[in-house]
Amino acid sequence: MSEFQKKFPHFNRVSTTLFLLNKL
User: Fold this and answer.
1) Please, is 12 exposed, middle or buried when counting C-beta atoms within 10 Å of its C-beta (0-12, 13-18, 19+)?
2) Rounded to the nearest 5 degrees, what angle is found at the Cα of 16, between the Cα atoms of 22 and 18?
3) What is the pLDDT of residues 1-24, one digit of tens each?
4) What pLDDT score does 10 carry?
5) Integer distance in angstroms from the first to the last C-alpha of the chain?
6) pLDDT value at position 13?
7) How many CB atoms lie within 10 A of CB 5?
8) DSSP string across 1-24
9) For residue 23, how many other CB atoms are within 10 A of its CB?
10) What is the C-alpha to C-alpha distance for residues 24 and 9, in angstroms, rounded to an integer?
């Protein structure tokens, strides 16, 4: 998972945003 996040930091940021929106 770490390697994937390193290759796609943008995707990681989007994932975090979706996670935060999901909590609302």
Assistant:
1) middle
2) 35
3) 578 677 777 777 888 898 889 887
4) 75
5) 25
6) 87
7) 12
8) -HHHHHH-HHHHHHHHHHHHHHH-
9) 6
10) 23
The amino acid at 22: N
What residue type is 23 in one-letter code? K
| Dihedral angle over CA of 15, 10, 8, 18, nearest 10 | 10
- In whole angstroms, what is the distance from residue 6 CA to residue 24 CA? 27
Structure tokens at 23: 């909590």
Which pLDDT score, from 0 to 100, does residue 1 have?
59
Q: What is the CA radius of gyration of the chain?
A: 10
